[in-house]
Amino acid sequence: MNEPLVTVFMPVYNSEQYIKEALESILNQTYKNLEIVLVDDGSTDRSVEIIKSYHDDRIRLVQNEKNMGIPYTRNVGLKEAKGKYLAIMDSDDIAMPNRIERQIDYLEKNPDIDAVGSYYIQFGDVAEKKVTPKYSKPEELKIMLMFYNPIANPSATIRMETLEKHHIKYNLDFFVAQDYQLWVQLAKVGKLEILPEFLLKYRFGHENISKKSNREKREKRKRLIGRIHEDMLEFLGVGFTKEELNVYNEFFTESYGSAVSNITTVHTVIDKLKKWNKDTQTFDHDLFLSILDDCILLAIYHQSLTGKEKVALYKQITSNRQAKDYVIILLKHYYHKMKKVI
After folding, report:
1. Which of 59, 87, 158, 264 has the fewest other C-beta atoms within 10 Å?
2. Are both 299 and 190 inside the same structural domain?
3. In 3D, which of 186, 125, 126 has the Cα closest to residue 150?
4. pLDDT digits over 71-115, tens only?
5. Glycosyltransferase 2-like domain: from which residue to which, for each copy (predicted)?
């Protein structure tokens, strides 16, 4: 296989506990033509000292003058990248030894694909779990992006030519969900895909800057994700009123215990989505309805309703109702209630 230069970009902030393992998982890749760009965002621990202890010509350390936040830091990584491809890596995760080789091989053989993610293994403060996204093909992911982010950011490798040609970079407003915002921009101009291979171990459950920000600024996070939804819907030409957009954002939320303000408008929103795609044939209609139903299932799980109300709502607004889905709703609902009690 031809081995074009790949930039592995890793933002770093107070990562002394994990940076050694993360960095060595890249240094030990089967793919060797790498530059490893680490951008430190004002760490106050031993992160920089640990990085400087490595003597490998492929490592390049860039340091922000002060803590600037993750979107700014990610844009520094984009600016510094010299490779044909940009492989994203977080400073607390672990890449499988063949991650870069497998993704670059795929991108080289499929020049129409602009970014590729992978399956991943969740580990850390939780039991190890293999995560296999149900949807992985370009059309499927583009539909999913209307509702939720289906791509694990540190599992992704991006074609730099696409980013440069379309002037795509991270939006500084997005202190969270900056990856979701970037995937939407890429999906507008290109194709995203997920390789059905476990190429990353994603650390989950430990305390980090994202979680702290998430707790402190939950409402701002919801507004930012609302902006992403609205941007994608406008691009696709889905015509919602302001009230319908508000309900759309309230309904398709990541936050458990959310309360949609108008259940009647939820029906209107879902009906409009179905009619829009049927009329425009933007996506294969059967595929669109299937993914919509899955996203409705997830959205209902997050709502502040009783188990009975959730099942009733699901019956009313889905296209392909199945008994197993009702069971899933109830199991998730009562599992979450038990967790709160415990």
Report:
1. 264
2. no
3. 186
4. 999 999 999 999 999 999 999 999 999 999 999 999 999 999 999
5. 7-157
**For the chain, what is the mean pLDDT?**
89
Structural domain count, the chain: 2
pLDDT tops 60 at residue 339: no
In a domain, 229, yes or no: no
Long-range contacts: 160-167, Cβ < 8 Å, 24+?
A: 160/7, 160/81, 160/83, 160/84, 160/85, 160/86, 161/84, 162/114, 162/115, 162/186, 162/189, 162/190, 163/78, 163/86
Both 193 and 246 in one domain: the answer is no
Residues 244 and 307 grouped into a single domain: yes
Both tokens of 215, joined, read: 């707790």
φ, ψ dihedrals at 204, nearest 5°: -135, 140
Q: Judge whether 15 lies within some domain.
A: yes
**CATH code: domain of residue 27:** 3.90.550.10
Query: H-helix or E-strand containing 302?
Result: helix 285-302
- Residue 77, in any domain of the structure: yes
pTM (predicted TM-score): 0.90
CA distance 75 to 181: 13
User: What pLDDT is recorded for position 2?
Assistant: 76
- In this structure, what DSSP letter does residue 154 have? G
What's the whole-number mean pLDDT along residues 244-255?
90
Q: How far apart are CA 339 and CA 336, in angstroms?
A: 5
Rounded distance between C-alpha atoms, residue 231 and residue 47, angstroms: 37
Q: Provide the pLDDT for residue 309.
A: 77
| Measured distance CA(54)–CA(233) in Å, rounded | 46
In sequence order, the β-bridge partners of residue 95 are 200
Give CA torsion, residues 180, 217, 267, 316, to 10 deg: 90
Q: Which two tokens stand for residue 100?
A: 């870069």
Q: What is the pLDDT of residues 194-247, one digit of tens each?
A: 999 999 999 987 554 444 444 557 778 888 999 999 999 999 999 999 999 999
What DSSP state is assigned to residue 131? E
Longest dimension (CA), the chain: 62
